[in-house]
Amino acid sequence: MRIQIKSIKNITIYVWNNINDFDKDIKRDSYKNNYRLVCNYFINPWNGEEAKYENFCMKLVRNLGHRSNNMDFLRHTPERCNNLNNWIYYSMKKHKIPEDIITGCFDDYNDVMSGINQPPRCSYYSYDTKYNEPINIIKLNIFESNMDIIQSTLDSLHDSINLPLRMYIWECINIYKGIYKKYCHNKDDEDQKRILTCSRLDAIKKTYDFYLSTIQHRMYKIPSLDEVEEDYLNMCVSEELKSALTVEMAGKITALQDETQDGERKSGDIQPIFTVTDENKGSPMSSTVSTTIGTMAGASSILALYKVTLIFI
Q1: Residue 134 in contact with residue 89, Cβ under 8 Å?
Q2: Which residues contact 148 (CB under 8 A, 6 or more apart)?
Q3: Which of 40, 153, 156, 235 could be a cystine partner for 170, CB 3.0 to 4.6 Å?
Q4: pLDDT band at residue 194, thresholds of 50, 70 and 90?
Q5: What is the pLDDT of residues 166-182, one digit of tens each?
Q6: 20 pLDDT higher than 70
Q7: Could you report the per-residue pLDDT of 47-102, keeping only the tens digit for each?
């Protein structure tokens, strides 16, 4: 059962820790040599491959869990698998990890599961080959996986919570609409990447409708994804309120960076994972709030993970 989270800052810490836990240091792990033996099959330092590849590989084998005596790897949940794949994608982009290292680790995991007559509990999501705009798909996946937490927070009496959360929802709606319009609206070609992208959007929409748009919230109505774009502007606030909120949330960013830690470092010390590109700039409609959204680390789970501006993934 999910814990009840009553503040945006706690949502941020909760989601960030779920991802950051995969990057913990490997040095004191008693099964480190087991992980290294696996990685030696497809990492060749004598061919000039960097030590960071081996470090990532050992962390991935540890996170899959099949080369230790801990049976938790038999209980991978869909949520944990999603978080693991988000960490993999972050690491692959940050450290330029060759994809064959990742697939090699999963092949070893699948072989072990087959050897004990168990189906794999987690598969590798090759975002770049499966989806258009993979970074934005990951952002929407994070949004989807935390909709139950968002729903439980929406009816808080505190506007300081509702306002940034509503703006986060608006930003995710805008990402969804942009991808849908570009790849899914009145499109019927057989491009596999487009089909998978639109299928993922359909699943996200079903979750959104279940948790958010069909629920009558105490303070306001969350728009349906089927509504026209202009209706989303009703979720925006005045420039004065956005400016005031930015100042308020800046203090929360500092507090978050001081308090959120993994085993090796503070989260504020981690370098940005992605930079703003044509893929994740959003449509012109979002430009009026994108700077504000980017500075509100406490606004949502996505801002805990993506550090485009301050702590946007």
Answers
A1: yes
A2: 2, 211
A3: 235
A4: very high
A5: 778 888 889 999 999 99
A6: yes
A7: 666 777 999 999 999 999 999 877 777 878 888 898 899 899 989 988 889 999 99
Answer yes or no: do 104 and 147 share one domain: no
Residue 92 lies in a domain: yes
Separation CA 262–CA 265 (nearest Å): 6
Mean pLDDT of 211-219: 65
Q: Determine, yes or no, domain membership for 5.
A: yes
Q: What percent of the chain clears pLDDT 90, i.e. is strictly above it?
A: 31
Domain count, the chain: 2
Determine phi and psi for 243, rounding to 5 degrees: -65, -45
Alpha-carbon span 58 to 105, nearest angstrom: 9
Task: Supply the mean pLDDT for the chain.
Answer: 71
DSSP-assigned states of every residue in 226-250: TS-GGGGGGG---HHHHHHHHHHHH
The pTM score is: 0.69
pLDDT one-digit tens code per residue, 229-243: 555 555 544 444 455
- Are 187 and 222 in a shared domain? yes
Task: Specify the length of the chain in residues.
Answer: 313
Sign, CA dihedral 104-108-114-119, equals negative
Q: What is the span of the domain harbouring residue 199?
A: 134-232
Residues 6+ apart with CB under 8 A from 243: 292
Count of CB atoms within 10 A of residue 276's CB? 14
